[in-house]
Structure formats: structure tokens, C-alpha cells
Fold this sequence. Notes:
The protein is α/β, with parallel strands linked by helices. The protein has a single domain (53-276), classed as 3-Layer(aba) Sandwich (Rossmann fold), CATH 3.40.50.150. It has eleven helices and eight strands. The chain has helices at 7-10, 22-29, 37-49, 53-73, 93-100, 113-122, 141-146, 148-153, 174-185, 205-217, 229-234; strands at residues 79-83, 105-110, 130-135, 161-165, 193-199, 239-241, 247-248, 268-275. Strands 1, 2, 3, 4, 5, 6, 7 and 8 form an eight-stranded mixed β-sheet that branches. The protein starts with 6 loop residues before the first helix and ends in a 6-residue tail after the last strand.
Amino acid sequence: xxxxxxxxxxxxxxxxxxxxxxxxxxxxxxxxxxxxxxxxxxxxxxxxxxxxxxxxxxxxxxxxxxxxxxxxxxxxxxxxxxxxxxxxxxxxxxxxxxxxxxxxxxxxxxxxxxxxxxxxxxxxxxxxxxxxxxxxxxxxxxxxxxxxxxxxxxxxxxxxxxxxxxxxxxxxxxxxxxxxxxxxxxxxxxxxxxxxxxxxxxxxxxxxxxxxxxxxxxxxxxxxxxxxxxxxxxxxxxxxxxxxxxxxxxxxxxxxxxxxxxxxxxxxxxxxxxxxxxxxx
Length: 281
């Protein structure tokens, strides 16, 4: 099948769009418009192998927005550190937070220049709040924490929500991923929270595994490693889990009751944990 060309494919703005990038593939799953031919081809192949991929991505996006509103309303959090931001899709995290409390502050972190260009152009804060954008890699958490923009934007003496939405599965080694979560969590004040979601193959290992393999076969900029419920749960070690715990994202406090454990469950686990004493997850 011949790949459909779109205007942005002809004028990519100096970005390398010849390899699929997870953020741009995710944008395609969400029916966004900020993606390129290579990413669309890869995303289409993922969806061909696993039709649940795109609905799961959309459920994950809805989960993130519910979580942010919960954290502002119920936990009283006014600061967010969002790792692996992804291409802006309204409402964005800061919009969800600031519609509840206009003074919320958000720092977005991503290493895709397309994401950062769109973020700076589109993510306007309220007058009372603040947004910042950092070009950094999830795999280098010490670098993220050392950035002056982060230290200026967020007050580390007060609670912060660390948000890692559908990004951990792009770290191949589980032990390394746990180290990253711990490093990012350790400096956070008491009352801080970890909100994390992660792809799983639990519901259909063969199908999910075949879909995840596309990221390597089509030379995406990051490979994808789905993990079991127990492995995702281990990322919350040291946290007090908020009910209902680590569950498919569509089952985490949905506005409309979800069919728990149904065949339509999202293939992404998500949860929120209260970080114990700011000592790390």
C-alpha cells in the first residue's frame, strides 16, 4: 500500500522524520495530526497486529487527565513533573491541572524536538501558573534533576507529582527503569505522588509481543518492552497505592463505570502511589 503523503511530510522543519518515533506514533494512535510518514507506517503496522493498541492509547490519555484532576482536587498537589510529555493533545496536562487550580505549575520533559517545538508554541499557562519545557532524556534522570529550569519552576520543598505516562516501556531493562523512578522520586517532598502507566502483554502475550516488536523491526528510535502486572507494580515499591491500585487504565476511577476484567480492558496498567516520606519509589 502506498503511503499517503501529508503537508508536514514535505516540510518537516529540519527534524529527522525518516525513523518512527514513539511520541509521533502515539500522536497517531490518538488521531493527532503531528506525525510523519515513517511513524504512521509503523503505527499502522502495530494496529494491524494488535487492534487494541490505539484504543489502549486513548484510554491511557483519559487516565492521565483523570489522575491529574484527582491529584489536584484530592491530594492538593499544585506541581507536576511530566516525563515523556508527548506531542500536545488538548487538553494537555497543565490545562487539566490549571482548570482545577489556576496556580498549578508544570514542567514537561521530552527528548523529541518535534514535541518540544509544539510544546513551546502551544502550551500556554494561566497567568497564575507556570509551564516549562526541558529537552532531556528519561534515561538520564540526574540530568533532568540538575536542570536550572526545573529548579526555578518547581519548589522541591513542597509536594510534586511525578507523572510517567506510557513511557517506562521504552526502557529495556527493568532494573534500570526502577533506578530511574527511584532517582526522580528521591528528592521529592513528603506528600508527593507517582502517577505511572505502562504497557502490558498480560491479556494476549502473543499479539502484544508481535505489536511491540514493530518498534525494533521498523527501526523506531526506541524499542518497546511490555511488562507484567507484578513488574509494573514493582515500580511503586515504597509507595502507598491509591485505590484501586495498579489496574488497566480504563478501570482506574473512570467517570463512567468500566467493565472490570473484560476483554475490552486497555493493555496498559496505571496507578497512583503516595511517595513515602519523599524517599523514593
